[in-house]
Design goal:
The chain is α+β, with helices and mostly antiparallel strands. It has one domain. Strands 3, 4, 5, 8, 9 and 10 form a six-stranded antiparallel sheet that branches.
Amino acid sequence: MPAPNIYTARYIVSGGVEMKLITGILSLIILLSIPLSTNAIALVNRDVILEAQEYGTKHKQLALTDFLQPWLAYEEQASVINAKTERAYLYTPFLLLANDARDKARNNQSVQLADSEKILADYAGCLVFSLTINGNSENFSNGMRVFIKQDKKIIRPYHSLINAPAKTSWPSGEPQFINYSYFYFREQEINLDNPIILTVTTKDKQEHRFYFNLPNFK
């Protein structure tokens, strides 16, 4: 599979490290329709496409971290919320369209209906998560295991893109490595009306948990 198209926003955190927030993801076509709801991941029709485009262009001046905030989950056990906090993003169809519109608007490009329709075709049937976790060894993410817990059901990704950890420049005592990865799940295996917990275990035997109340995500 081809690597995803990646757009990054850089921001300085304590210790001077630049953290990359990755918002692009790779395309895969698995057709599926999702029940329409005003407060949940919804069937994307023409009205929703236009709404997402409007959202993206209206909020084009927001920093990317602020723009993505509604689709963010921090690690459940995080004691402090800052730029170092482990996090995951859920890329819903609405967010994909809105982010594309934002990017085009920031580059003075027109936002076309055909572009949004192509994005929907590329990502149809997927729930895609980007994940940022920290560790203290350069191979801490080797053998990473990722799955979704929903009620008593365990759901595993059908595709993963796990990058090599990057060295940070945080002070001694802070995590020295950071990993950015992507995980792709089939919507048909998930009940979009119920919460999920995205769970990650790594070679250092650490468990990282991210709670997503799916009905709250557009």
